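User: I've been trying to design a sequence by hand for this structure and keep getting stuck. Would you show me what you'd pick, starting by listing the structure so we're on the same page?

Assistant: Good idea, let's start from the same input. This is the structure you sent:
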């Protein structure tokens, strides 16, 4: 354990979860009118909106790729999203890093060669944060992209795993992120479990890594189901309305 906070007591984490438990996740699509596609996620105490614009002509022109779309991603935390961010507006180094790695996830997943010379803009706005915002942001952005109709080779999800002492835990919240001994956010394509993002803060043994991956892939089934239900929800609702 790093620092002097006891993160696991009698087998339970501070928020009552067991080591392999996810926080509650809710996703809603098409939450803002003026985006091509959008989604809102509540993941524990994280609240995030993702919105998509495009494909549209890549501007300035020198940023265009004549063979495929470029993905421009901006991850931002609102000035009221956490005590650290209080009063701060604009990008910091961390937001630049998260924007970059998130953009790379979607560059790898969107069928970009269908849209040569264009750009796809992806905005991830963190309204409230409690650890794991990059994972929640990617999970939400995937739904926003799918809702916008942009074709992808799969619907990625993301979650992190880490460790407290020797115990491997899933889906770290902020206090766990701050005091744990490792944090590993991962994004995965569920169809073949292809890893499209893997970052690591701290270190894991080989056994801990495979235990962490097992928790991630198991929880991924739940996360993917929540994403798919959110995407279907508007159609189910209109079908019910037609019936009624
Ligand atoms: O959010 P994520 O875990 O992907 O990123 P992190 O850099 O590991 O940060 C962990 C948590 O610390 C964030 O989710 C925020 O709650 C908080 N944080 C913040 O509020 N402001 C920052 N500049 C950095 C971190």
């Amino acid at each position: 354990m790093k620092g002097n906070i006891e993160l696991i007591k009698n087998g339970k984490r501070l928020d009552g979860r067991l080591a392999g438990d996810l926080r509650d996740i809710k996703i809603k699509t098409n939450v803002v009118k003026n985006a091509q596609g959008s989604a809102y996620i509540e993941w524990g105490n994280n609240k995030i909106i993702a919105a998509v614009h495009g494909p549209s002509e890549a501007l300035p022109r020198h940023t265009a790729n004549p063979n495929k779309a470029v993905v421009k991603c901006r991850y931002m935390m609102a000035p009221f999203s956490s005590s650290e961010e209080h009063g701060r507006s604009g990008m910091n180094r961390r937001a630049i890093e998260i924007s970059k790695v998130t953009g790379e996830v979607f560059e790898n997943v969107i069928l970009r060669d269908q849209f040569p010379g264009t750009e796809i803009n992806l905005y991830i706005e963190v309204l409230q944060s409690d650890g794991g915002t990059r994972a929640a942001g990617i999970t939400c952005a995937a739904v926003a992209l799918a809702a916008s109709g942009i074709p992808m080779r799969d619907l990625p999800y993301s979650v992190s795993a880490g460790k407290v002492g020797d115990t491997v835990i899933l889906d770290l919240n902020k206090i766990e992120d701050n005091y744990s001994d490792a944090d590993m956010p991962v994004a995965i394509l569920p169809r073949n479990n292809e890893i499209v993002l893997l970052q690591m803060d701290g270190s894991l043994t080989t056994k801990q890594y495979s235990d962490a991956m097992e928790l991630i892939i198991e929880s991924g089934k739940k996360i993917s189901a929540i994403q798919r239900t959110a995407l279907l929800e508007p159609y189910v609702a209109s079908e019910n309305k037609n019936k009624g």
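That's my pick for every position. To get oriented when you compare it with your attempt: The pocket of cytidine-5'-diphosphate is lined by residues 82, 84-85, 94, 129-134, 174, 177, 185 (CB under 6 Å). The chain has one domain: 15-243.
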